[in-house]
Amino acid sequence: MTLGKFVFSLLLAALAGPLSAAECPPLLQGELPKLRAKESIDLCQRFAGKPLLVVNTASHCGFAPQFKGLEAVYKRYQGQGLEVLGVPSDDFKQEAADSTETAKICYVNYGVTFAMTEPQQVTGDQAIPLFKDLTQQSGAPRWNFYKYVVDRQGKVIASFSSLTKPDDEDLLAAVEKAIASQP
């Protein structure tokens, strides 16, 4: 897609206004509370039509330094439309007991500027709908910092284990593929 076509498609999307629930991909239907904020993230309004990297996080996990790499990926591709969504979870017993500590670790210690939610369940029957859909499309997260790359239509195009660092060439190739996908 040329830059001109990309800008034109963004303008059309902006003029069209928010998507209705019928137009929003199932993956993005719903809201999640923002980390340490009074407002929620309307997933459809914020992410529909955009390439997305979704990561289940845990602030006390040995993989927590990946926050820096995730932030670097976000900064590198943000201008091309990429969004990153961090979803803290205690499913693997490594998330802070209070969201104030989670926020401090994310925002102060690692300088995260991408969207973060309050801690959520990401595995099993009690998983939030977003992760139920991610799991159905690609498999359940097996540990913290499992990564899902989602195209502009809300389809998972790749998933990566916790061991995959954010600067991994296969992960970045998947992000670039998601960016190139048509809305």
Automatic annotation (TrEMBL):
Signal peptide: 1-21
Organism of this sequence: Pseudomonas cavernicola
Family recorded in the similarity comment: Belongs to the glutathione peroxidase family.
Active site (UniProt): C61
Keyword field contains NADP: no
GO biological process assignments: cellular response to oxidative stress
The keyword Signal appears for this protein: yes
Protein name: Glutathione peroxidase
Sorted UniProt keywords: Oxidoreductase, Peroxidase, Signal
Organism lineage string: Bacteria, Pseudomonadati, Pseudomonadota, Gammaproteobacteria, Pseudomonadales
Domain Thioredoxin, chain residue ranges per copy: 13-180
InterPro entries recorded: Glutathione_peroxidase, GPX_AS, Thioredoxin-like_sf, Thioredoxin_domain
PANTHER family to which the protein is assigned, alphabetical: GLUTATHIONE PEROXIDASE
An MF annotation (GO) of this entry: peroxidase activity
